[in-house]
Design brief:
By secondary structure, the chain is mainly α. The protein is built from 15 helices and no strands. The chain has a domain of 213 residues: ABC transporter involved in vitamin B12 uptake, BtuC (Orthogonal Bundle). Helix 4 runs parallel beside helix 9, helix 5 packs antiparallel against helix 6 and helix 5 crosses helix 12. The chain is globular, with a radius of gyration of 21 Å. It starts with a helix and ends in an 8-residue tail after the last helix.
Length: 350
């Protein structure tokens, strides 16, 4: 199908309508998550009072309720949304550039490279410095991109299948280095770091949430401004070049943007896998392949997905919290196998 036919079917009005609908879903998801937890807060009691015989007693929040809702749950919900949106946006970028729906930051090894850089920053005491963890995480992600590009061929003409295989191999190598660093760590820090590696959204400080939000805004803006170029690159490099796209420059800008989104998210939340795989693919199946619509839809739905996953992680087992990466892996792994089974790993066209 011609790219101009696809683009003509997606108007600004449609982008706004779909984005507004998914934003309402995000708000509803966040509100529901705010009330989920082992502690029964005064807001829930307030709803009971409204439905009962004492509406005047509704919403009488106790100080401990305020602390639970607005100091513990709300920042965590906000951070989960930002991380989910960042990983989903990065997934859209990588899948488009590689023309393969199996590409995502986790499978390509970029999450592993970021995690290795973050752990090095933590273990060397750099965490006390400004950007002491995000900076080495970004460097780890950048090194991963370089290695995967080098293994996949030249920047000008690469094989997406080879790059995916290279990503798996690089990820395995970084996992071995992570295990080496952990084996040299003190016993007191070992359990904490391992839990963080599997995904932990409970430790983010306001400054980290703000930084994640700013990076998400910048990364999404860059990707959305290049949405038409991404559409053309997805058709094929030769087509994009003939239609005036500077393919090499655009690819490197987008690869760095996706790597930065992944690095900042991983440096604060740990390795949360498969979000960048399943969300873009689901949105592409529902809404089509035009990235002017796909990018905001994946951002919003990815935020909702990770909020739900984190809510399950902290409420599924009483008096115990699961790493959110475990929940996303339980969702993503079967979906990954489904894509392989259906042969959906082949490069697509519009």
């Amino acid at each position: 199908m011609d790219v101009f036919m696809v683009e003509s079917a997606v108007t600004l009005a449609k982008v706004i309508k779909v984005s507004l609908l998914l934003f309402l879903v995000l708000l509803a998801t966040a509100a529901a998550s705010l009330f989920c937890g082992p502690a029964d807060t005064g807001l829930l009691q307030g709803f009971r009072e409204i439905l009962g015989e004492r509406p005047e007693a509704a919403f009488a929040l106790k100080p401990e309720d305020v602390t639970i809702l607005f100091s513990l749950r709300l920042p965590r919900i906000l951070f989960a949304g930002l991380v989910g949106a960042s990983l989903s946006t990065a997934g859209v970028i990588f899948q488009a550039l590689l023309r393969n729906p199996l590409a995502d930051p986790y499978i390509l090894g970029i999450s592993g490279g970021s995690a290795l850089g973050a752990i090095i920053g933590i273990s060397t005491g750099m965490a006390v410095l400004p950007l002491g963890v995000p900076l080495p995480a970004f460097l780890g992600a950048a090194v991963t991109v370089i290695l995967v590009l080098a293994a996949g061929g030249s920047v000008k003409g690469f094989s997406s299948g080879t790059m995916l295989l290279a990503g798996v191999i690089v990820n395995a190598f970084f996992s071995a280095l992570i295990m080496l660093v952990l084996s040299l760590s003190s016993h007191a820090d070992l359990q904490k770091v391992i839990f963080w590696l599997m995904g932990n959204l409970s430790l983010a400080e306001p400054e980290e949430i703000l930084l994640t939000g700013l990076v998400l805004l910048a990364g999404f803006s860059i990707a959305w401004l290049h949405a038409r170029s991404i559409n053309l690159i997805s058709l094929g490099e030769e087509t994009a070049i003939h239609l005036g796209v500077a393919v090499e420059r655009t690819r490197m800008i987008l690869l760095l943007s996706g790597s930065l989104l992944t690095a900042v998210a991983v440096s604060f939340s740990g390795t949360v896998g498969f979000v960048g795989l399943i969300i873009p693919h689901m949105m592409r199946m529902l809404l089509g392949a035009d990235h002017r619509l796909l990018l905001p839809a994946s951002l919003l739905f990815g935020a909702s997905f990770l909020i739900v996953a984190d809510t399950l992680a902290r409420t599924a087992i009483p008096d115990m919290e699961l790493p959110v990466g475990v929940v996303t892996a339980l969702c993503g792994s079967p979906y990954f196998l489904y894509l392989l089974r259906k042969g959906r790993f082949r490069p697509w066209s519009f």
